[in-house]
Design a protein that fits this description.
By secondary structure, the protein is mostly beta strands. Helix content is about 5%, strand content about 55%. The protein folds into two domains: about 90 residues, Sandwich (Immunoglobulin-like), CATH 2.60.40.1120; about 500 residues, TonB-dependent receptor, beta-barrel domain (Maltoporin, Chain A, Beta Barrel), CATH 2.40.170.20. It has a 23-stranded mixed β-barrel. It has a five-stranded mixed beta sheet with strand order 11-16-17-14-15. Strands 2-9-3-6 form a four-stranded mixed beta sheet, with no helix packed on it. It is globular and about 110 Å long.
Length: about 750
């Protein structure tokens, strides 16, 4: 099976309109019919004697044989097809009237002539059922703040149909339209952990295009914890996003092409191998705005300000089931960045252009070996090779940070009596990190110091590092009470002392409907490598420490409806701040508190969706003697409503709505003129707190309609949608004039219609 996808960016939609109308007409002009195919035994002959009639039944739109089709003959007799969709009907000398029936497909009535030999028919999918039988339920979490969404659910509501985007729509998350990363319960973006299975990666979102760094075809589900998680996760103060890959072997090969004009293209292929016992998948993705836009803008004479997003990834994925377990191999190369060119007086180049290049990348090669040794013991071992780099080039100044490591994640679990369970694990990482900086040499004694004319100085530091962790946890049942204690001990070679984080989760089943749950614990994070460097930071820094307190009530109202209400309080102590004497110190701290409401309608054949609301207060300060001020990430109200309705077998409608408080920002009290730099610089009064201003509230509505067009052996899925739907463009930032005497809001683009085409051949 091959899948071809063409997605049209709003700026290039007109290129697809003509093609869309033609294909749509073609698709609906093919009614269901019985199609004659030559018999493998040669041309049929016309005889008066009864002849056997063979019928091959396939699914319309894919051409996949339908197993065990029921043929109902006159007189009430029933005959069933084989696993290849082949029906052998009784010999007949006259036209035979039959009815084909298969659950999930429309009933088909046929009149078959014995002179036609073997025939092929295609069954249409049936309209979705109104029975409200739940197709997929979210995994019932044991941790207080974990939610799980399957890929089948995610493709119905996620931005870009990408499962990794689901956390943006859940409670406890603050999002910014200019950022692809997320803020979880007030923690900064680098305070959260991104995991593919158990392999840690530095980021999972590309900076453009609403896509993640891993192909969605290999993702089974997304497990998202906003806090209070177990001891197996460390070096994190925020939340955990875990993209868990599939174990199942596909029955047949599949190739998918996706072309998004003019942003990126993707190719994906999966193939069962080793006689269908294993499977391998490969994928590649590349953006091309950095190739297409420069010559276009140059010819148009518009190079005053140009931004080129650049991203791509390549993957290989291999699955080999073993007895009572599985072996998986994943390899990935991911790169992401932005190139920006503008006319600027900061430039030292002859053409007067200033360049801002930001690049990041990582490579991963990991193996997962997981096996149930017997009824009591299970083991998981995951070694990996990792490399990551970050590069910033700003007006002839550069910062390059890179790290290469070998890591091992291992866990052993043992079942005790009843439902009790205990597990131990370790996480080891050995590697080398480097920091390179090219910047103007500082001269504090020069009152006329000008960084533009100062000589450049290059500083480099390379250091080996060791990160080690050992944890133990359990699941202990006392009647209706489940207690999950845990302890994580850890050491990072760049810091002077080890640490330990105790944690506990609990869940009490009040009755069949209600569960009372909670969590508390400590969560530590090491500072960035550059922050503990002797050349650029402070080797005497300590661990950043966060404490999570969570209480919640989970209610299962019916098979269709569940709700989850949680209150949380979180502190983050010893945050890293600038210091004029020692460069950096651990004097900062912050806290976040709030309420979260989540109402979910489980997936049925027709309807799926949820309501998610978060009320939170986020405060921070840089020194213990200061008063708390609004955090950079404070969004008091965040409301997400998302849903999908399958109207018929061919039509699906859906949408997402977002309402949130405006972002905080630093107001400008006055400005001063810097003679050396020949420009005005903003200033705040000493009594003015940071992030004392807030943008207006932000809201948007995104709507779409999917239309499937079925041919005999392939199909097209058209998505017609509109994004950023609002009464007026929404505020996304603040801009000032040259001397900061006037400000204006930067607003979003107007509503953007789009068309996307996906084809399965």
């Amino acid at each position: 099976m091959s899948r071809v996808t063409v997605a049209a960016n709003p700026r290039g939609l007109y290129l697809l309109k003509g093609l869309g109308l033609v294909l749509l007409v073609m698709g609906v002009s093919h009614p269901v019919h019985a199609q004659s195919e030559p018999s493998p035994n040669g041309p049929a002959t016309t005889e008066a004697a009864p002849q056997e009639i063979s019928l091959r039944v396939k699914a319309k739109g894919t051409g996949i044989p339908i197993r065990r089709v029921e043929a109902r003959l006159p007189g009430g007799k029933k005959i069933y097809g084989d696993k290849e969709g082949l029906l052998k009907l009784p010999p007949s000398a006259v036209v035979l009237k039959i009815e084909l029936y298969k659950s999930g497909y429309e009933v088909m009535n046929l009149e078959l002539s014995p002179s036609q030999g073997e025939q092929t028919v295609y069954l249409l999918p049936a309209a979705p059922s109104d029975s409200n039988e739940v197709v997929v339920r979210g995994e019932k979490p044991t941790e207080a703040s974990r939610k799980t969404v399957t890929t089948e659910e995610a493709v119905r509501v996620a931005p870009g149909r990408d499962p990794a985007q689901i956390p943006r729509l859940l409670p406890g998350v603050q999002v910014n339209n200019f950022r692809t990363d997320i803020v979880i319960r007030g923690s900064p973006p680098n305070g959260s952990l991104y995991v593919i299975d158990d392999f840690q990666v530095p980021f999972i979102f590309h900076s453009f295009g609403n896509i993640s760094v891993i192909p969605d075809q290999i993702v089974n589900d997304v497990a998202f914890s906003t806090g209070g998680f177990g001891p197996e996760r460390g070096n994190v103060t925020g939340g955990v996003i875990n993209l868990r890959t599939k174990n199942e072997i596909p029955e047949r090969s599949k190739t998918e092409f996706r072309v998004n004009i003019p942003i990126f293209s993707t190719i994906y292929h999966e193939e069962p191998v080793n006689d269908g016992k294993d499977y391998v998948a490969v994928s590649a993705r590349r953006s091309y705005l950095d190739v297409l836009l420069p010559p276009i803008l140059k010819n148009a004479g518009n190079m005053e300000l140009t931004v080129f997003p650049l991203f791509g990834d390549e993957h290989i994925f291999y699955v080999h089931p073993i007895e009572n377990g599985v072996v998986k191999v994943i390899g990935a190369h991911v790169y992401d960045g932005v190139k920006l060119i503008l006319n600027s007086d900061l430039s030292t180049t002859a053409d007067g252009k200033a360049k801002f290049d930001i690049q990041r990348s990582f490579e991963l090669l990991g193996v997962e070996w997981k096996k149930d040794l017997n009824q009591d013991w299970s083991v998981k071992v995951e070694p990996s090779l990792n490399h990551q780099s970050n590069s910033i080039d700003i007006v002839n100044n550069a910062i390059d940070i890179a790290a290469t490591s070998v890591a091992v994640y291992a866990e052993a679990a043992r079942k005790l009596g009843g439902k009790d369970r205990v597990y131990v694990g370790t996480e080891l990482s050995y590697g080398k990190a480097s920091v390179k900086v090219l910047a103007p040499e500082q001269n504090p004694s020069d009152p006329f110091y000008n960084p533009q004319s100062a000589p450049q100085k290059k500083v480099e530091q390379v250091s080996p590092f060791i990160a080690e962790a050992l944890w133990v946890g359990g699941e202990l049942n006392y009647g209706d009470l489940l207690v999950m204690p845990g302890l994580r001990a850890f050491r990072f070679s760049q810091l002077t002392q080890p640490g330990a984080d105790p944690r506990v989760n609990w869940r009490y089943q009040i009755n069949n409907m209600h569960s009372f749950k909670g969590a508390l614990g400590q969560y530590s994070q090491t500072p960035e490598f550059s922050e503990t460097s002797a050349s650029f930071g402070n080797p005497a820094l300590n661990y950043i420490e966060s404490r999570h307190y969570v209480l919640g009530l989970e209610t299962v109202w019916s098979d269709l409806w569940i709700s989850d209400v949680q209150g949380f309080y979180k502190t983050i102590d010893k945050t890293v701040q600038s210091d004029p004497l020692v460069k950096l110190d651990n004097d900062g701290d912050s806290f976040s508190t709030g309420l979260e409401f989540f109402i979910r309608r489980n997936l049925t054949e027709r309807i799926f969706g949820w309501f998610a609301y978060t009320y939170s207060i986020n405060k921070a300060r840089e020194q213990p003697t200061q008063l708390y001020h609004n955090s950079e990430y404070d969004q008091t109200h965040v409301l997400n409503v998302t849903g999908s309705y399958k109207y018929s077998a061919l039509w699906t409608f859906g949408g997402r709505g977002l309402f949130r408080s405006g972002n905080t920002y630093n107001g400008v009290d006055y400005s001063v003129y810097n003679v050396n730099l020949n420009r005005y610089e903003p200033r705040q009064s000493f009594t003015t707190p940071l992030y004392n201003k807030r943008e207006p509230v932000y809201y948007e509505l995104n709507l779409y309609a999917d239309r499937e067009v079925l041919f005999d052996t392939w199909k097209l899925t058209w998505r017609f949608g509109i994004e950023n739907l609002a009464l007026k463009p929404q505020v996304q930032g603040v801009n000032y004039n040259y001397d900061y005497s006037k400000q204006e809001f930067v607003r979003s683009v107007p509503p953007v219609p789009y068309i996307e085409v996906r084809g399965i051949l």
